[in-house]
Structures are given as structure tokens and as C-alpha cells.
Amino acid sequence: MSSYNNSPKHSKPSGPPLVATRLLDQVRERLRYMHYSLQTEKSYVYWIKFFVRWHGRLGTMRHPREMGQLEVEAFLTMLATERRVSTSTHRQALSALLYLYKEVIRQDLPWLQEFGRPIPTKRIPSVLTREEMQAILTLMTGETGLLARLLYVTGMRRNETLTLRVKDIDFDRHARRDRGIERRHHLYEQRLQRALKNAVSQAGIAKPVSVHTLRHSFATHLLQAGTDIRTVQELLGHSDVSTTMIYTHVLKVAAGGTTSPLDSLLPAQ
């Protein structure tokens, strides 16, 4: 076994002693105490459960306390080489295991800090033109049409929109109130995605479009209209402006066929 099993060191507690006795319940309890989002809670629970079950696939289930560096390395390697998960998914799984050992099991694991996080490759997101956006919204009606318009006009994330309630909105300030983590979806995600897919097909749009494309389009269209990048950052809820800067690259790609200002100064030949 790894050195972790021989000489574990307890890290400084970041909250009160856990009340729950089952591992996954302990994970949920600690995440909620630290005010993590419901989406993060679901993600972390999924990866921790996957980690334990994957190592117990041959019949012997072990508690993470009984596992260490070799087991974590094997699991992450499997995700990268066999499952071929994306960089962001791989980072998410690593974050879940880091949280498990540090905040729930509360053991100082220097070897975990040595794991290199895969460097994400920045991909230019697919963005709709204003005309394409108009065509899609015209074809979407009812509740899914309302949600699509809300996604585009606010730039909210998919889950934020699907869990939005009337009491979350401050009509006087034209803003959203803090929603907390105990939320349920009022419409199934698949229903919105299916309605959007149908509208894209009817509009004859060939580019890849997902629910998140509406958020991308919101940000890009604001920048095209001259909105300051810091304002867009705040509206999107990005903690770092470098994340928002990806939309400036979208604008550069879109400007590939833009007429040079020199053309407007010289007479046509």
C-alpha cells in the first residue's frame, strides 16, 4: 500500500464534526455546510461513488480510507486512457477526490497535491448570429420558448434557468435573488433540449447548437454591441475575466469577412 495508509496526517477541520455515518451522506453534509451548489454536490457524489465501485468491481469493496495514491492514480489513468474523458471531466473527478480526502476524511495527503491537473484546451464556442437567434426563438413557443428567451436575454446557465422561481426575482431591482442549493427542476432538461433541437432543424441551421449556445450568443452579442468586457463578466458570473475573454476570440473569428475601413475611404475601382 502507499505511504498514505502507513502514516496519515489529519488536516485542520473546516467545519463541525460530521453527524452522518455513511460516506456519501458525509460528503453531502460537508458540501452543504460549505454552501456548495447542488450541481457540484451531485457531481462530487457521482465521482466518489464511481471511484469506490470501480475499485470494488472484482468483488472487494473498500472504504477510501483503505485506499491511497496507487488507487487514485489508477482511477484517474483509467478515466483518461480507457474512458477518454474530456479535460474538464478529468479535472472534475480529481477535484471530487481532493475534496473527499481533505474535507470529509480529513487527512493531509501531500501526494494528492502532486497530481497535475490537465490543462484545458480552449475551444471557440459555437455562437448564433442575431438572425439565427431570431429564427429559433420565433419557432419556439410555450414554456420551452419562454425558457429559451430567458436563457438568451439573461445569459443564465441552463440549471439556473430550469430551477428559477418567481420568488427568486427582485422585480424592483431587476435582479435575481440568492437561490440557495435546495432546488428542483420545474421542467425536464431533455424537454428544453429537444424543443431547441427541433427549432434549429426547422430554421435550417447547420452549426452545432445546445442550450448553452444561448448563453454564448448572449455574451457575444453584448460585446458586438459595445458592452464593456467587465460588465459581461459580471452578468455571466465569471470569477475571472480571462474566462470571459474567450468571447473576444469568437468576435475575431466572426470578423474574418469584415470589410476593411479603408474600403469606405477609397472610391471603387
Descriptive report:
The protein is mainly α and 269 residues long. Helix content is 54%, strand content 3%. The chain is built from 14 helices and four strands. Strands 1-2 form a two-stranded antiparallel ribbon. The chain has a two-stranded antiparallel ribbon with strand order 3-4. The chain is elongated, with a radius of gyration of 23 Å. The protein starts with a helix and ends in a 15-residue tail after the last helix. Residues 1-7 and 173-183 have low confidence and may be disordered.
Report the span from N to C terminus: 79 Å
The helix tally amounts to 14
- Strand order of the biggest β-sheet: 1-2
Percentage of residues in helical conformation: 40-55%
> Largest beta sheet, briefly?
2 strands, antiparallel
Give the low-confidence spans: 1-7, 173-183
| Cα gyration radius (Å) | 23 Å
How do the helices and strands follow one another from N- to C-terminus?
HEHHHHEHHHHEEHHHHH
Structural class: mainly alpha
- DSSP strand tally: 4
Shape: elongated
* Content of β-strand: under 5%
Overall pLDDT level: 79
List the main descriptive attributes of the protein structure presented here.
mainly alpha, 4 strands, single chain, two-stranded antiparallel sheet, disordered N terminus, 269 residues, 3% strand, elongated, two-stranded antiparallel ribbon, 14 helices
Q: Brief description of this entry?
A:
With 269 residues, the chain is an all-alpha fold. The chain is 54% helix and 3% strand.
Describe the protein's topology.
Elements: H1 3-6, E1 9-10, H2 23-33, H3 38-55, H4 69-81, H5 87-104, E2 107-108, H6 110-113, H7 130-139, H8 142-154, H9 158-162, E3 169-170, E4 175-176, H10 189-202, H11 211-224, H12 229-236, H13 241-244, H14 246-254
Helix pairs in contact: 2-3, 3-5, 4-5, 7-10, 8-10, 8-11, 11-14
